Amino acid sequence: MNRALSIRSRKKDDHAKEASKHTFSISTLRGIQQAELSKKLYKLIKTENHAIGAYETAGRERLSIASQLSDWGESTNDDAISDISDKIGVILSEIGEQEDLFAQNLEDYRAILKQIRNIESSVQPSRDQKAKISDEIQKLKYKEPSSPKLVTLEQELVRAEAQNLVAEAQLTNITRQKVKEAYDVHFAATIERAEKQIILAKYGRRLLNLLDDTPVVPGDVRQPFEHVNEARKVLSDAEQELQTWEPQLEPIHSNAGGLGSNLMPTGTTSETASAAAEPIASPVQTEKPAAEAQGTHLESATA
């Protein structure tokens, strides 16, 4: 059996990953401090963080399972089982890498949702100020209907309503744009993970067809495994198809190109709009070591 095609030649802890960065922490206080408007999205983002950690864990466990399968196959003293189990381990390792890449892509999607949450948080004070002034006016009308302070409060209410009107428009603009952007990333990542794992599973099944399961009677000796080269070719073909994979995605159409830096349609000249909240920076694309790692198990196995 050609050991260059084996995952056994690597150290036992080669697949050990760093501890997940999605560790649980005492964040109750942070949740309490969230503006009422952004609490639900804050909770969603936090839950998604836990889900991402689960995908990372699944990827690490898949790598461990691949190694254990290879070790078990070697211990059977059956050349065919030993070779096929080792190569299936290579396939399973690549499937595990896809879980890790998927988790990293979800981080980008999650970062986009945070932009909506930040805008929601910035709009809350505007709503609160408008409600506060309205309450003060109602109380003053009840206690001192002729108070000269009413005029001042009503003027303040007009300004607060104008500012809130702009803030609400900004919120709906950024929410619609970023929901499309976020779930475009999410669904594209889901498709990539699914299609690449389908490729890997397809070649894993081809490996199974190289294993002769014809029953033998006591005393018979199995023929030597004759499909070493074919098994190597299966891994080589899997690597080639994985490397040449390209997404075939239905485009997500957007009319948000006319959104200005003040989160209002380009050309909006309202002074209030100009003084609105600062634009939120575009999400920073995270580095994806898993994207670079994908195919490495196949590559090293077919080298």
Could you outline the blueprint of secondary structure elements for this entry?
Layout: H1 28-33, H2 39-75, H3 79-143, H4 149-208, H5 228-243, H6 271-274, H7 289-293, H8 296-302
Helix pairs in contact: 2-3, 3-4, 3-5, 3-8, 4-5, 5-8
Provide an overview of this structure.
With 303 residues, this protein is an all-alpha fold. It has a domain at 50-213 and 223-246: Arfaptin homology (AH) domain/BAR domain (Substrate Binding Domain Of Dnak, Chain:A, Domain 2, Up-down Bundle), CATH 1.20.1270.60. It is built from eight helices and no strands. Helix 2 runs antiparallel to helix 3 (79-143), helix 3 (79-143) runs antiparallel to helix 4 (149-208) and helix 5 (228-243) runs antiparallel to helix 8. The protein is elongated, with a radius of gyration of 29 Å. Mean pLDDT is 82; it is low at 15-20 and 269-284.
What keyword list fits this structure?
303 residues; mainly alpha; single chain; Substrate Binding Domain Of Dnak, Chain:A, Domain 2; elongated
Task: Give me a quick take on this structure.
The chain has 303 residues and is mainly alpha-helical. It contains 8 helices and no strands.
Q: Figure out the total of helices.
A: 8
CATH architecture of the domain at 50-213 and 223-246: Up-down Bundle
Helix amount, in percent?
55-70%
- Taken as a percent bin, the fraction of beta residues is under 5%
Task: Give the ordered list of helices and strands.
Answer: HHHHHHHH
Strand tally is 0
Global outline: elongated
Rounded to the nearest angstrom, the distance between the terminal CA atoms is 14 Å
Spans of at least 5 consecutive residues with low confidence:
15-20, 269-284
CATH topology of the domain at 50-213 and 223-246: the name is Substrate Binding Domain Of Dnak, Chain:A, Domain 2
* Average predicted local confidence, pLDDT: 82
Give me the CATH superfamily of the domain at 50-213 and 223-246. Answer: Arfaptin homology (AH) domain/BAR domain
Largest sheet: none
Structural class call reads mainly alpha
Nearest-angstrom radius of gyration?
A: 29 Å
Coiled coil: 150-177
Region (Disordered): 251-303
Protein name: Sphingolipid long chain base-responsive protein LSP1
Organism: Knufia peltigerae
